[in-house]
Structures are given as structure tokens and as C-alpha cells.
Amino acid sequence: xxxxxxxxxxxxxxxxxxxxxxxxxxxxxxxxxxxxxxxxxxxxxxxxxxxxxxxxxxxxxxxxxxxxxxxxxxxxxxxxxxxxxxxxxxxxxxxxxxxxxxxxxxxxxxxxxxxxxxxxxxxxxxxxxxxxxxxxxxxxxxxxxxxxxxxxxxxxxxxxxxxxxxxx
Length: 168
Ligand code: SF4
Description:
By secondary structure, the protein is α/β, with parallel strands linked by helices. It has one domain. It has helices at 51-61, 82-92, 107-111, 114-121, 153-159, and strands at residues 4-12, 20-25, 47-48, 68-72, 98-102, 125-128, 149-152. A 7-stranded mixed beta sheet has the order 3-1-2-4-5-6-7. Helix 2 (82-92) links the parallel strand 4 and strand 5 (98-102). Helix 1 (51-61) runs parallel beside helix 2. Residues 28, 30-32, 35-36, 40-41, 73-75, 104, 130-131 line the site of iron/sulfur cluster.
């Protein structure tokens, strides 16, 4: 199935460290009770991804004010078409810039699945787990509920256990 996205924000300060370009892909079967946007669960919702879209995002990431890319959904870990796109973006990502990914799956669920793990390995920071309204805490940065974790991906893969990341 082709990759679709609902929106691309060139400058986003809510979803990760610094000013980031964020991409909301569509398609998700997790059906969280508190889903923030049920429209995004439909994998056909939004605009079909194209080569031009990849080039546009790469252009945004060259902006010296932009700290990196953030991938959100929908569910990025259910979008197989996202892997080659992120591979291409990764190849041209300016040094020092990072890729964050938000997922309703936990770190443990992602590393146990080869397809999901492929996308994980292309990223630097994972915000994991579903949003749970009863655990909502407005003091949390870059995540909505206290069950969600901000995880440094490379150190975690090297250690074989999730290692939390403390954003600046
Ligand atoms: S993971 Fe996100 S898009 Fe999917 S059902 Fe949960 S809140 Fe909605």
C-alpha cells in the first residue's frame, strides 16, 4: 500500500527538541480509546507520498533553524512505505540533525518485530506507547501521558535495554 500523510509542518516546536519538521503519516490499527484524531487511522486519508514530497522534506531539513525530523501518525511503525523514504532522508540529513519517531507501540514491541525495527534503526529518539488519558500530565515534555517514554535508540539497541533520553 502506498504511503499517505495528513500534514507536514515545516516548523514544529511541540514534537521533539528544538524547531523540527514534522510529518504525520496516516494509517493505524491500534484503535486507542483516546485517539487524538481518528481520521488518521485510515491509511488512505490525506495525500499520497511522492518523490516530490521527499525532496520537499529534505529541503526543509537543510534549514539551519531546523533541528531535525519528527515522524508521527497515524502509526509510523505500520507504514512499510516509510522505510525507504526515511532511508533517503537519512542519507542527506545534515550532520548533527536528528530523527524522532512517535509510536503507539512500546520499544519492546518494536524491537521484537523485524519490520518495525528497520524503521527504529533509522531514527535517533523514540517516544513510545499509547496516549492514555487517565495518565495525562501537562508537565511532561514531548509526550502526553506518563506511561510514554523518551528513549535514546542507539544506546538502547547497543545495551539491549531501553535507555531513557532527557531532552535539553
Ligand atoms: S496510535 Fe495514535 S493514531 Fe493510532 S489509534 Fe492510537 S492515538 Fe490514534
